[in-house]
Amino acid sequence: MLRLETRGPENGICNICGTFSRLTDDHIPPKGVPLVGQTYMHKLAASLGAARPGSGRLFQRGVKYRSICSSCNSRVLGGSFDPTLIGLCNDLHTTLPQQVHLPITLNVKINRLIRAFVGHILSHGIGHYRIGEFSSHLTDYLIDESLAVPADLRAYTWIYPYKAQVVAQGLGSIFDYRDLANPFVFSMIKFYPIAFLCSVGDLPQKESRFVSRVDHLSTTGIDDKADLTLNRSYIPAERWPEAPGKNGAVFHNDLGTIAVPAVRR
């Protein structure tokens, strides 16, 4: 089992609603998503043609934050949005082992799904309520269920057959040194079996070929459904996009966490 260290005051400003109250810690990934062992993960990665999961250094202690009030934790995330995310993860887990290299299409409540991802990203860190314009746009979208995704927001998702759990805000990436004038700023969350990235502005075309853009599926009806199609014939590298390629660079801050659960065979 992964031992967790909890950081943050017992009382403070909620990252989502901004009220001062007793703070609770957010569960990333949410309880109810599939838990699998390392042997299964290696076999799955091989069947998908993905790179073998890296061994790397095993983090024996992860970090979680007291960052949101109990109402936002249980009612907003746990009650309204996480059930859709958990359902998607379990459906994807069931579908992935099938030996058919066709795209996977799942019908989901897309507006609840995107908000689940956004809510967990906003919950990461201490004292980050509406820090910056991007965070404020995401917060408005999360708490007002009548809104579609903001026009300047881009959201992408992809299959993630790896054990490392990654949450990060405000990373800056230069995918290619020949394009120094256009750094790409993004936030993301990754855990088996899915990953999500949001940004202001488009991913470079070369980087977006194998991920699915989902912001354009958003509507103003919170329970509207859409077909989410995921590419299973090519899986981005395990450390993409938080680690640079040979011709690029990624600029991190203190709002990133990577946790690798202890190996289960």
Calculate Rg over CA atoms: 18 Å
Q: What's the count of strands?
A: 13
Query: How can the largest sheet be summarized?
Result: 7 strands, antiparallel
- The ordered H/E elements are EEEHEHEHHEEEEHEEEE
Helix content: 10-25%
Approximately how much beta-strand content do the residues carry?
Answer: 25-35%
Mean pLDDT: 87
Number of domains: 1
What overall geometry do the principal axes of the alpha carbons give? globular
Q: Cα distance, first to last residue?
A: 12 Å
Discrete helix count:
5
Which regions are unreliable across 5 or more consecutive residues at pLDDT < 50? Answer: 55-62
Q: Pairing-aware structural class of the strands and helices?
A: alpha+beta
